[in-house]
Task: inverse folding
């Protein structure tokens, strides 16, 4: 009999809490599909840094499991409270507490097992979608095939089962304290509304809004951010999120007591009272949901930042098919050329030298004016600190300014499809990263370059992608007429190659292996590197890639893999947080629809049509749904716009700082709308059951 009762109750629960069942199935599918990236042998064999994806996905799971456990625990307690009168009747007819506890335990396990099985089936679809997107992002072909990795299944099941069992065992304490009176009276107690000190509490609302304004002003105007300031604002944001709901509930209560003019407009009084009572009883839950929404939007926004970076900047950062650096200016790259001819079809190959004239003008200016370095290389009076600059601890720039001859420069421009540059014999130009030039502005008046017949005049800047992370200079290179090179010294040697088709997958690794060849190692070359300091990396931050050997077809997928290791877990966390929060919102409303049925039936009897009642339900749900959404959008919007601006500034990406937030908001409201529609349809169906 108890088994039949358990199955009947599970069917009813699956119907009444369809949103919860659906979310647990989706969460299972997401966990299974992302764990595939963690355990897939094919993914692990793609790149040398395969551990990064595993580590980041593992960390994401560590963040997600407590949230899932919180959801399950919340739902187990919530359903238990909603069924308290039913369990009280069981006790009245003589059913023992242990049997009721066993029944409830079995029902939840069956519900969870059903969601898990549906989720695993859905996970196979998610797995193929996720792997297709992943392989496409790293520019590799993917053939659809199912991956049934035992460790992946076991880890998903273990995380899911642990969350469920933990929540169910905690509910055992509730059963031990059960008595008939408390069970029969529990729902009535939940409906009690205690309004005390409302006039004082209502000030929490303007104070919360004021704090957000102050937070925004400080975020964009205050420069001296340190650990103490950050912690203070984080604590303030947490308090603001939770106190906001206390304030808005108290403000509505006071407004109704004062009989404000708006309460007599249509159904405003009914809706305000409904909203106020719900917020008051669930203010902690609403605050937690707002925090989850905020984290979800922030996570997806950061993921979109890195996605935009890899689509826009990577190709321009590495414009040449193959590029090889050598600190030995006498290096003729014989082994590299031989290897390239064996492994690729070469269209064009070119070797050249970068020069120096023992001056340090541009380096000093950049060290003292770029925000990346702050005031580290400046004296108190603003002049360059030559002692620190000469130590070259950052390795952003070489020890001396870097120069290139005009003929070599035009040859390189032609190889990557750029037009040639014309210079007179008494002129020079600077090829510099667009990001750097945007910071410094025109600084040609601060430097003087000597030519064969006196000081050269400045002929302009060029900012196209030119491999300026240690190869064609770091951030910049000065272009001079070939005749001027006669009075300079070769600094280091470079090789570039243009090849037909795609490079072999292991070409960059094989070029790196040449450095281990005893015949390639030059004591003179290493001594020169140490003496001249002719290696650099540029001032890029956030995303950097520096290597002696660059093979574009190898390194771009590798860098995209590294970025995907950050983007995919961020999307993973954001989606789960969003689904969990929306589930709580929806279940709360759907479960309360039975209680609201009486209220709406009274309105129906008073003359309200079904259409008018549905409009009221729409307004009620919209207010309940939009409140946490608007607060989370306000907080995440400030942080996203600030972070997006900094990201664009330091990476050189050209996009409006608000772009990432807007894209995340569209995704956010797309999922939000799905849950809202499901809740609205279910709510109307439950309310209109009066006939």
Result:
């Amino acid at each position: 009999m108890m088994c039949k009762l358990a199955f009947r109750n599970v069917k009813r629960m699956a119907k009444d809490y369809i949103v919860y069942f659906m979310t647990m199935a989706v969460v299972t599918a997401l966990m299974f599909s992302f764990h595939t990236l963690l355990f897939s042998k094919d993914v692990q064999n793609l790149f040398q840094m395969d551990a990064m994806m595993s580590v980041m996905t593992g960390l994401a799971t560590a963040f997600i499991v407590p949230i899932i456990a919180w959801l399950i625990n919340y739902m187990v307690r919530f359903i238990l409270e909603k069924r308290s009168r039913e369990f009280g009747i069981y006790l009245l007819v003589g059913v023992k507490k242990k049997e009721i506890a066993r029944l409830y335990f079995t029902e939840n396990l069956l519900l969870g097992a059903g969601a898990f099985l549906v989720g695993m089936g859905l996970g196979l679809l998610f797995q193929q979608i996720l792997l297709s997107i992943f392989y496409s992002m790293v520019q590799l072909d993917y053939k659809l095939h199912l991956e049934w990795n035992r460790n992946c299944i076991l880890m998903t099941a273990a995380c899911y089962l642990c969350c469920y069992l933990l929540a169910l065992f905690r509910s055992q304490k509730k059963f031990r304290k059960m008595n008939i009176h408390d069970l029969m009276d529990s729902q009535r107690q939940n409906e009690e509304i205690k309004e005390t000190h409302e006039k004082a509490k209502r000030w929490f609302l303007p104070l919360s809004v004021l704090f957000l304004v102050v937070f925004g002003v400080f975020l964009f105007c205050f420069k001296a951010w340190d650990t103490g300031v950050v912690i203070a604002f984080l604590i303030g944001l947490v308090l603001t999120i939770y106190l906001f709901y206390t304030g808005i509930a108290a403000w509505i209560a006071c407004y109704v007591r004062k009989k404000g003019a708006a309460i007599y407009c249509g159904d405003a009084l009914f809706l305000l009272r409904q909203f106020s009572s719900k917020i008051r009883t669930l203010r902690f839950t609403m605050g937690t949901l707002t925090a989850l929404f905020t984290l979800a939007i922030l996570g997806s926004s950061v993921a979109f930042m890195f996605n935009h970076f890899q689509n826009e900047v990577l190709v321009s950062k590495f414009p040449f098919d193959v590029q090889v650096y050598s600190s030995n200016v006498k290096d003729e790259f014989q082994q590299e050329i031989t290897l390239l001819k064996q492994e690729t079809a070469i269209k064009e190959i070119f070797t050249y030298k970068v020069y120096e004239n023992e001056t340090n003008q541009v380096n000093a200016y950049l060290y003292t004016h770029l925000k990346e370095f702050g005031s580290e290389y400046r004296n108190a009076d603003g002049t360059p600190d030559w002692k620190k600059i000469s130590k070259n601890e950052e390795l952003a720039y070489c020890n001396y300014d870097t120069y290139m001859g005009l003929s070599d420069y035009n040859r390189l421009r032609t190889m990557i499809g750029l037009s040639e540059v014309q210079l007179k014999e008494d002129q020079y130009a600077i090829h510099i990263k667009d990001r750097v030039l945007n910071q410094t502005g025109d600084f040609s008046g601060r430097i003087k370059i000597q030519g064969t017949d006196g000081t050269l005049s400045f002929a302009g800047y060029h900012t196209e992608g030119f491999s300026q992370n240690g190869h064609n200079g770091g951030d910049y290179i000065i272009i001079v007429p070939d005749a001027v090179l006669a009075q300079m010294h070769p600094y280091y040697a470079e090789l570039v190659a243009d090849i037909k088709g795609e490079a072999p997958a292991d070409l960059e690794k094989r070029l790196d292996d040449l450095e281990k060849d005893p015949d390639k190692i030059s004591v003179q070359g290493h001594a020169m590197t140490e003496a001249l300091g002719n290696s650099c990396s540029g001032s890029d931050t956030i995303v950097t890639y520096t290597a002696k050997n660059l093979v574009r077809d190898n390194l771009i997928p590798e860098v995209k893999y590294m970025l995907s290791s950050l983007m995919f877990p961020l999307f993973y966390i954001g989606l789960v947080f969003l689904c969990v929060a929306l589930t709580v919102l929806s279940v709360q409303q759907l479960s309360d629809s039975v209680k609201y049925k009486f209220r709406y039936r009274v309105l129906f009897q008073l003359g309200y049509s079904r259409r008018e009642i549905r409009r009221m339900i729409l307004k009620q749900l919209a207010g309940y749904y939009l409140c946490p959404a608007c607060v989370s959008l306000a907080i995440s919007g400030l942080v996203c716009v600030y972070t997006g601006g900094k990201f664009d500034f330091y990476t050189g990406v050209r996009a409006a700082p608000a772009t990432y937030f807007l894209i995340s908001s569209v995704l956010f409201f797309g999922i939000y709308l799905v849950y809202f529609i499901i809740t609205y349809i279910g709510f109307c169906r439950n309310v209109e059951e009066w006939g």
User: Anything to note?
Assistant: Confidence is low (pLDDT under 50) at residues 521-531.
